[in-house]
């Protein structure tokens, strides 16, 4: 049973006053949402198994309003839940009954495109795909491309450090964000990073990216944009077993080839996707690899030939190469629609997000089949094979008594298996509430305390997105934080500057 911090009754008793204060800060029509029917769309994110109406929702329109809201919340000790497009799959935007949900979707403008420095400055509510659409007329694009890129916001991508099908070669969000403007819980506006490739000092941008709304609210983003490759072609490679497919993935990487994308699907996912999209996927194979090579024409032609030979040596029984751009996009449309395809054949599904060493792929896939039998639920596998980021889709029926609990237990066992073979709990969806209580499987108590100290440095009252990531969040006193004066007294010989 998911447990969240108990609502603060003192805050709930002040709801009318809080609403009035928010309307003073955001006077525009519809900027403050208070009616239950209008709050309903905000009761969950993409992890729809868990729902809670927020106390109120506010939609600020500029950084000054965000700063004023957070300063008010800090002064009055009111909890805050930041929210982007609501497409997250780990419950990171799950509201709280005593918290203000701050929706950033009115921050939806592209502010500047710097072609010379290959950078774009955008607001956090701009969609992932929206960045590419803003620059594609000059042959540029934004590389990270989650399956939800048509809807997910760049602010949410930063919160979860999202990846996508091309992250193997071009990196995750953290590798493509150059700078942010962020507002702290005290209402202070910070700028971290910028258009320059290297920044002095601590890597605060690395800490902020993937922090899941626990450290502050991002109000502006500077991202790297790339030149569209001269050529891109995709291969479909079919195998009689997931083990052969996994071995082919390892062999491609071992050969020194880094594809633009390297994805894998198992038989249940292939069948569901082909029925939905009709991308031309073969239905008589147990595993399907989608490999994309990009770059200069001569290089792509050479690599296509090499990958084809590697696949044949690994037992490929099916091979098809895209002949034009339309066919390449059709191949990818199947992969990017795999999640909704599963939604057509199952009343509900839960999408997991573990990452493992590539060499353990076949072992983990076999283990998941054993777990499927153990829990009595089906599973379809769609994943970023090149970097070992798995997305098992657990199929269940929430209206059937006990099915949700079985799905949760199944998902927990999958993530424990990922950690056991040397992997991690999340590759790109974040911890949120979904994986929160599994953090102890991966981190020691000391590990967790170090992470909590970073949280406390930004938000010692634990007002930003409480109940997420940390199973139990300690107070500053419990963590025995050393303040500057205490350090000076304890270590008098350390030089002071």
UniProtKB/TrEMBL annotation:
<dbReference type="InterPro" id="IPR036318">
    <property type="entry name" value="FAD-bd_PCMH-like_sf"/>
</dbReference>
<dbReference type="Pfam" id="PF01565">
    <property type="entry name" value="FAD_binding_4"/>
</dbReference>
<dbReference type="InterPro" id="IPR016169">
    <property type="entry name" value="FAD-bd_PCMH_sub2"/>
</dbReference>
<protein>
    <submittedName>
        <fullName>Glycolate oxidase</fullName>
        <ecNumber>1.1.3.15</ecNumber>
    </submittedName>
</protein>
<dbReference type="InterPro" id="IPR051914">
    <property type="entry name" value="FAD-linked_OxidoTrans_Type4"/>
</dbReference>
<dbReference type="InterPro" id="IPR006094">
    <property type="entry name" value="Oxid_FAD_bind_N"/>
</dbReference>
<dbReference type="InterPro" id="IPR004113">
    <property type="entry name" value="FAD-bd_oxidored_4_C"/>
</dbReference>
<dbReference type="InterPro" id="IPR016166">
    <property type="entry name" value="FAD-bd_PCMH"/>
</dbReference>
<dbReference type="InterPro" id="IPR016171">
    <property type="entry name" value="Vanillyl_alc_oxidase_C-sub2"/>
</dbReference>
<feature type="domain" description="FAD-binding PCMH-type">
    <location>
        <begin position="50"/>
        <end position="228"/>
    </location>
</feature>
<dbReference type="InterPro" id="IPR016164">
    <property type="entry name" value="FAD-linked_Oxase-like_C"/>
</dbReference>
<dbReference type="Pfam" id="PF02913">
    <property type="entry name" value="FAD-oxidase_C"/>
</dbReference>
<dbReference type="GO" id="GO:0003973">
    <property type="term" value="F:(S)-2-hydroxy-acid oxidase activity"/>
</dbReference>
<keyword id="KW-0274">FAD</keyword>
<keyword id="KW-0560">Oxidoreductase</keyword>
<keyword id="KW-0285">Flavoprotein</keyword>
């Amino acid at each position: 049973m998911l447990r969240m911090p108990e609502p603060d009754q003192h805050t709930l008793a002040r709801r009318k006053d809080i609403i009035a204060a928010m309307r003073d800060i955001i006077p525009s029509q519809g900027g403050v949402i208070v009616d239950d029917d209008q709050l309903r769309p905000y009761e969950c994110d993409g992890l729809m198994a868990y729902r809670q109406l927020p106390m109120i929702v506010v939609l600020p329109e500029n950084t000054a309003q965000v700063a004023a809201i957070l300063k008010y919340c800090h002064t009055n000790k009111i909890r805050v839940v930041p929210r982007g497009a609501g497409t997250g799959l780990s419950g990171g935007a799950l509201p709280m009954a005593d918290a203000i949900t701050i929706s950033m979707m009115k921050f939806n403008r592209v502010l500047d495109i710097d072609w010379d420095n290959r950078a774009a400055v955008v607001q956090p509510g701009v969609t992932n795909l929206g960045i590419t659409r803003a620059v594609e007329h000059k042959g540029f694009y934004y590389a990270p491309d989650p399956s939800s890129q048509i809807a997910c916001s760049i602010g949410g991508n930063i919160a979860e450090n999202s990846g996508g099908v091309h992250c193997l070669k071009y990196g995750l969000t953290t590798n493509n964000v150059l700078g942010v403007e962020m507002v702290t819980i005290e209402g202070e506006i910070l700028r971290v990073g910028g258009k320059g490739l290297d920044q002095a000092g601590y890597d605060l941008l690395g800490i902020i990216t993937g922090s899941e709304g626990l450290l502050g609210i991002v109000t502006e983003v500077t991202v790297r944009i790339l030149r569209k490759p001269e050529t891109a072609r995709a291969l479909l490679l079919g195998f009689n077993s997931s083990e052969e497919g996994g071995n082919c993935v390892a062999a491609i990487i071992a050969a020194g080839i880094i594809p633009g994308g390297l994805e894998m699907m198992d038989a249940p996912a292939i069948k569901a996707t082909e029925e939905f999209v009709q991308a031309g996927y073969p239905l008589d194979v147990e595993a399907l690899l989608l490999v994309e090579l990009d770059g200069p024409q001569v290089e792509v032609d050479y690599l296509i030939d090499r990958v084809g030979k590697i696949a044949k040596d690994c037992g490929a029984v099916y091979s098809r190469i895209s002949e034009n751009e339309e066919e390449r996009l059709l191949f990818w449309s199947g992969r990017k629609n795999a999640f909704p395809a599963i939604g057509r054949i199952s009343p509900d599904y839960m999408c997991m997000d573990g990452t493992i060493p590539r060499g353990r792929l076949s072992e983990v896939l076999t283990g998941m089949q054993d777990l499927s039998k153990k829990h009595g639920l089906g599973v379809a596998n769609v994943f970023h094979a090149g970097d070992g980021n798995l997305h098992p889709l657990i199929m269940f029926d929430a209206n059937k008594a006990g099915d949700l609990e079985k799905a949760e237990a199944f998902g927990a066992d999958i993530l424990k298996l990922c950690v056991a073979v040397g992997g991690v709990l999340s590759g790109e969806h974040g911890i949120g509430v979904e994986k929160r209580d599994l953090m102890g499987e991966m981190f020691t108590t000391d590990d967790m305390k170090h992470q909590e100290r970073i949280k406390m440095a930004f938000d010692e009252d634990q007002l930003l997105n409480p109940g997420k990531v940390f199973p139990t969040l300690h107070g500053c006193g419990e963590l025995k934080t050393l303040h500057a004066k205490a350090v000076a007294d304890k270590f008098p010989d350390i030089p002071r500057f």
